Amino acid sequence: MLLTPDPRIAGERNRLVDMFMQAPGFVAVLSGPTHVFQFYNEAYRRLTGHRNLEGLALGKALPEVIGQGYHDMFDSVFETGEPLHGKASLVKLQRSPGAPAEDAYVDFVYQPIRDVDGRIVGVFVQGHDVTNVVIAAERQRLMIDELNHRVKNTLATVQSIAVQTARSHSDPRTFAQGFQARLMALSHTHDLLTRSHWEGADLGAILQHETAAHGAHRVTLNGLPLALEPAAALSLGMIFHELATNAAKHGALSVPGGRVLIDWSVSDQARPELHLTWREIGGPPVATPERKGFGSRLIDRNVRHDLTGKVQLNYASDGFSADFSIPLDRRTEL
Questions:
Q1: 280: containing domain
Q2: Taking the model in full, what pTM does it have?
Q3: Any idea what DSSP says for residue 251?
Q4: Is residue 318 one of the residues assigned to a domain?
Q5: 99/62: higher pLDDT
Q6: What distance in Å separates the CA atoms of residue 26 and residue 125, rounded to the nearest whole number?
């Protein structure tokens, strides 16, 4: 006698299948010792590159996972009946035919499926693709590491500025003024870098920042837009601040008719090098200083050590000038 299927049982089964198919996490059922795919939902299909897996053994359905340990885990669950868990586990999957395998990270649980007699007949797979979460966490870690690096470098720079400024100013009041002005110069360049998410800053914008207080009509900038990487931008910002401060105290910007001309260009595109000239005209007579001040020491140290470049300070009687040659691609120097 044939038994009529209970429509209620069939309805429950269909609802259960629909629930698995629409589940946000991936689900699959594999049977037998070769792990043949009997069922898998849309999330599992997306994870495995929309392949037709039904009726195929694991090794044939997903050949790229052989050697990654997952086949061994299926064997273990099927043979021992002990479930296995994985968290943010790396798996390399081929997302399209002929394409190289891509990295994916998954949280998963493999559980044994038993028949009415308790024998293991398959493995139930459930999990989530957490690739985006893992990548976001790695990016955050890198950002924190980079932030820590920048903070340490900034603190070291501030410490150096404080020590060198103190050596040049015995009076606490003048020390405070000089120290604050140099910190503001550092802050200005930080602002420019923040606007670009620390990808770099334009040379012309840095020069405008550091010379704006002395009158834009008295400073002529001549050069094409040039993006500087963050370390170079910070060093040059400090250098231009010292040059502008010196020009305002002793050089061309200390008298009404004086002017500063700044020209720059880039040579050798294979190994680009910045050539910049700071030239003062119309100022008081210039004499070579008897000793190096903080500004000239900072310029020399930053150019030669931080920027691995060259600088020539010229104290001609008709006006001070400085010539810089700075490599822009320093990867070959490391």
A1: 135-333
A2: 0.56
A3: S
A4: yes
A5: 62
A6: 8
